[in-house]
Amino acid sequence: MPGANAKALEKAKTLAADVLLLDLEDSVAPEAKAEARAQVAAAVKAGGYGKREVIVRCNALATPWGRDDIAAAGPAGPDGLLAPKVESGAEVRALDAAMTAAGFPAHATLWVMIETPRAILNLADIAAAAKDTRLAVFVLGLNDLAKETRARAGANRAAFFAPLSLAVTAARAEGLTAIDGVYNDIADSAGFEAECRQGLEFGFDGKTLIHPSQIETCNAVFAPTADEVGRARAVIEAFALPENAGKGVIKVDGKMTELLHLEEARRVVAVAEAISQQ
Q1: Checking CA distances to 163, which of 42, 47, 98, 235 falls within 20 to 30 Å?
Q2: Same domain assignment for residues 22 and 123
Q3: Is residue 25 part of a domain?
Q4: Per-residue burial over 211-220, b = 16 or more CB atoms within 10 Å of its CB, e = otherwise
Q5: pLDDT value at position 277?
Q6: Which stretches in the chain have pLDDT values below 70?
């Protein structure tokens, strides 16, 4: 949501989104940065966003606005900070320190944009910083990555298969959430749905959106299906049977099922239950 657009910040209170990213970076012109910063801080402090997580996207620390963005956002009490163009673990730690200095709430997490060639080369280092910082989420920024690499994504994003897969792998290695990048053609609903399904296949937990019209499709694609939830519950119930106590492998509905499947089943059910409580 553009931080300079007061109507957008208000409309965000009605959207069926899990997270609201209030933007101070790309969607705000340089001459409007200060006003947008004050407006976003006031909106976050005023609240009214319900169960939605509210994340402020700041400008990079290397810009003239980044540190002021963080200093203003902290006292407002958002659920987290999204930082653009992060390229190293050292940058993650600098952002974490800036959040602490600004007075971000203890529960606030750090999200980072993965959107440059150097970030892709340093994915393991960036993700490893989660061990001693607030880092919790990777967000892919393929528009910037396309610009920097001169790659042409095409309809199936083939040029970015490696970055997409590597980002998910690095995130999972450190227990981070991974969010896919935006789909630019708002009018192409079929193309958007196809890209959501592709992101799901890559292992992403969700997708960043640029228009409210994309929310319903995104929610439908990334939510577990009724069949998936039913299968997950069957796996959990089967492992809970007395006769299966201590077993590492059992048969569920004719399929060999291991403890790793039990772990995934619990995750699927937890996601489904979280959705049902919205």
Answers
A1: 98
A2: yes
A3: yes
A4: ebebeebbbe
A5: 80
A6: none
Q: In the structure encoding, which two tokens stand for residue 242, read together?
A: 């007395």
Residue where a domain terminates, one of 177, 201, 222? 222
Residue 153: the pLDDT is 79
Q: Tell which phi-psi region holds residue 253, choosing left (phi > 0), alpha (psi between -120 and 50) or beta.
A: left
Identify the sign of the CA torsion 252, 255, 261, 267: negative
Q: How far is CA 4 from CA 84, 114, 232, in A?
A: 18, 24, 44
Q: How many Å apart are CA 255 and CA 56, to the nearest integer?
A: 45
Q: What is the pLDDT of residue 154?
A: 83
> For residue 1, is it within any domain?
no
**Sole residue written with tokens 């061990």:** 131
**Structural domain of 19:** 6-222
Q: List pLDDT tens digits, range 63-78.
A: 999 999 999 999 999 9
What pLDDT, on a 0 to 100 scale, did the predictor assign at position 62?
A: 94
- Say how far apart CA 188 and CA 155 lie, in whole Å: 11
Is 110 within 8 Å of 99 (Cβ atoms)?
Answer: yes
CATH number, domain at 32? Answer: 3.20.20.60
